[in-house]
Amino acid sequence: MRVKAATIIVGMCGVLFSATQVLAASVSINPSINIDFGAWGAPPSNAYGGAAGQAGTWNQVGAIGPATRNLVDINGVSGSLSLSLTGSTIVNSIAITGYTGDERALLNDFIYTERHGPWSFSIDGLGNGAYDVYAYAPAHVNVGTGDFSINGIAQSAVTGSTGGTVDLGVEYLVARTIVSNGTMSFVSSTSLYRSGLAGLQISNVSAIPLPPAAILFGTALLGLAGLKRRKRTAA
């Protein structure tokens, strides 16, 4: 009887552990990220939320050619987040009198390619789920985003401007994007002579939940564990 009781207890521990893992996985939280492209001057302050209203740490990414940069989320937590630039991407800066403060810090420097060269990069280490992506155009009369795709979904170009307000469809676009393999890829498809990006905000919308059947299974396991415990206590 003692051996049987010990076997039941060990089995119950396994059931409880499995059920806890199932239920915890269904409520996981994905990171939100702010990125300022270009290395001329400081990035926006942590108090600046941009068009996404997402205050927090801003990553500053400025590179020439292929490179990989580690990233942190808006809380300054690194985890396994990284950005990998591919293709011939360079950095430029231009003085913009129409923007000041944090908006100037975000828009007046940027990454771009010229001579119709494509730009591309990927952000890795993301949790799977839905994100809203805010992509900012450079504040330069001769450089816009051009047409590009996010995870294979085509986006319309935004041209940017040299000052004033930061408006949807002019200085930035917003795209709902689904991540299913931990990676978000950005690939240009423009014929512009010069094109690039001034910044990104990636805002977590939701993690991909487990199917309802899996959650019900976990709940059932917990219920079974409680039932067996009550029977053992009564005996």
Walk me through the structure.
- This protein is of the alpha+beta class.
- The protein folds into 2 domains: 2-26 and 211-234; 33-207, Jelly Rolls (Sandwich), CATH 2.60.120.
- The chain is built from 3 helices and 14 strands.
- The protein has helices at residues 2-25, 101-107, 212-234, and strands at 33-37, 58-61, 67-70, 82-86, 90-93, 109-113, 120-124, 129-136, 148-150, 153-155, 172-179, 183-188, 195-197, 199-207.
- It has a 6-stranded antiparallel β-sheet, with no helix packed on it. Strands 2-1-14-8-11 form a 5-stranded mixed β-sheet, covered by helices on one side.
- β9 (148-150) and β10 (153-155) form a beta hairpin.
- α1 runs antiparallel to α3 (212-234).
- It is globular.
Q: Judging from the principal axes of the Cα atoms, what is the shape?
A: globular
Biggest sheet architecture: 6 strands, antiparallel
Alpha carbon gap, first and last residue = 12 Å
Order of helices and strands: HEEEEEHEEEEEEEEEH
Which range does the strand content fall in?
25-35%
- Output the structural class: alpha+beta
State the total count of DSSP E strands. 14
Mean pLDDT across every amino acid position: 78
The third-level CATH topology of the largest domain is Jelly Rolls
In order across it, which strands form the biggest sheet? 3-4-7-12-9-10
